[in-house]
Amino acid sequence: MSDTSSAAEDLDLRAVRFFVAVAEARHFGRAAAELHIAQPYLSRQIRGLEQRVGARLLDRGPRGTSLTGAGEAFLPRAKALLRLASKACAASRAAARPSRVNIGHTRNVDVYPAVKELLRLHPDAEVHVVELDWNEPREALLGRRVDAAVARLPMATDALDVTVLYDEPRELLVPLDHRLAGKESVTLEDIADEPLPKLPDPAWNAFWRIDPRPDGSAAPDGPAVEVLEDKLELIAAGQAVAIVAAGFRGIRPDLTTVGLSGIEPSHVILATRTGDRNRLVDAFGRYARRLLTGPPTPRPETPDPADPEPR
After folding, report:
1. Which domains, ranges and CATH numbers included, belong to the chain?
2. Residue 265: is its pLDDT beyond 60?
3. CA pair distance 7, 52, nearest whole angstrom
4. What is the pLDDT at residue 216?
5. What is the pTM for the complete model shown?
6. What is the C-alpha to C-alpha distance for residues 243 and 173, in angstroms, rounded to an integer?
């Protein structure tokens, strides 16, 4: 084995973390204060790291501390090493605690039949249900905020295992006094001039605004929004309409949905991290595929005592 390989194997992650702190603070004294350690101890740790790496990483000067060329090359890799170590620890803790699972879901997607089955058949399980914004499922999964997510496409699916649970019709959401309210169904031609709110995601806009339209024309632009509540307020005020999933029926008493014909449905999916080994995630997946087969029915006003975390 080469000396270089031996040095890499001997790297102390604590010294690497100290180096990153100094590199970011550009000052040994400030870094020591942030780390709550003595400055001489910090200096010794950095010297030891440089000996293991085989190059000087930091230069001290009258105006503070600067990175050498070797330090500039080492810094991004040092940060990546610390992130990898953190993920390794998180994965190990998750594997050591298979009695805990976090289930995520987006708005108006009902996971509770599968959650209740999970609790019934695994009474020792600690189950947490987390409501996610429309654009959060992927980030929440890869960041280990949740272990499984039930959400709607579109969503980037690399590094994830994805199963389509059911298709859900797309409908038009309008205020009660809209000219189309009360109709059994409408077509894209009926809303050719109706503005639709825009979200900060191209794939989401393409699918939920049907933009471009089948004839190549652009969907009419409505106001830009980032959260569902803002969209609902715009619709209630008569400033826009929106294409939504059937699960949004009855979302507000001042809004109603109308069938939208001639378009493909929405797809509700179960997503988990690729390669994740957790018996509760596997069990929830089985129950979700069996029990989550269509849009939710309206939930009762009185909290259900069987719910693990009433909303």
Report:
1. 3-95 (1.10.10.10), 98-166+267-291 (3.40.190.10), 170-260 (3.40.190.10)
2. yes
3. 5
4. 93
5. 0.64
6. 6
